[in-house]
Amino acid sequence: MYTQIYVFIPLTFSHGAHGYNGVRPFYITNALMGIATAWLGMGWFQRTGWRSMMVIGHASLCGCFALAAWLVARDRGADASLAILIVFAIVFTFGESLILPASNIALAGLTTDGNAGRYFGASAISWAIGGVLGNFIGSAAARWTVLAPAWVMFMVIALTGLLAFRSRWPQ
């Protein structure tokens, strides 16, 4: 997720008609939507299983990336209107705001009293490695002359997560 939000989205949309000023509303919307989702969803997060949150979050990301792939394939990606970019930010942030707490809830359920630090430490290391690799891959993909395959790749990754968490694995 961080590859898309911190590398690929700004590098893609900064080439549009609005330049880097067109990316600023994305980050403002991302911040406000993240706060709103956390504030409004707090009770729901406690009542809903982590797997459901993962499925809804990954479905949201699939839709977001499918929209981006479609816009880019129609040569409207970087020049898409600010309204479309704001909608993109809302859908993306909603998915992100469900996946992040769900992963912590799932991880907390796996730990015992004596090994919680190890589990969360290993999780933090995996996020760091993913961030490093993701930023490298996102930067490389943003230089591609055709950007639609990168958005399709992000959609396939989100779809893989959706299908994995939708399966009948034990809670």
Structure characteristics:
mainly alpha, 171 residues, 79% helix, globular
Number of E strands? 0
Radius of gyration: 17 Å
Shape: globular
Sheet/helix structural class: mainly alpha
Give the low-confidence spans: none
Q: How many domains in all? A: 1
> Between the first and last Cα atoms, what is the distance in angstroms?
24 Å
Element-by-element helix/strand order: HHHHHH
So how many helices?
6
Share of helix, binned: over 70%
Strand coverage percent: under 5%
Report the mean per-residue pLDDT as an integer. 82
Q: Sheet with the most strands?
A: none
Note down, in words, how this protein is organized:
This protein is mostly helical and 171 residues long. The chain has one domain. Helix content is 79%, strand content 0%. The protein is built from six helices and no strands. The protein has helices at residues 2-13, 24-47, 50-73, 82-110, 116-142, 148-166. Helix 1 (2-13) runs parallel beside helix 5 (116-142) and helix 3 (50-73) packs antiparallel against helix 6. The protein is globular and about 50 Å long.
Concise synopsis of the structure shown:
This protein has 171 residues and is an all-alpha fold. The chain has six helices and no strands.
Q: How would you summarize the topology of this molecule?
A:
Blueprint: H1 2-13, H2 24-47, H3 50-73, H4 82-110, H5 116-142, H6 148-166
Helix pairs in contact: 1-5, 2-4, 3-4, 3-6, 4-5
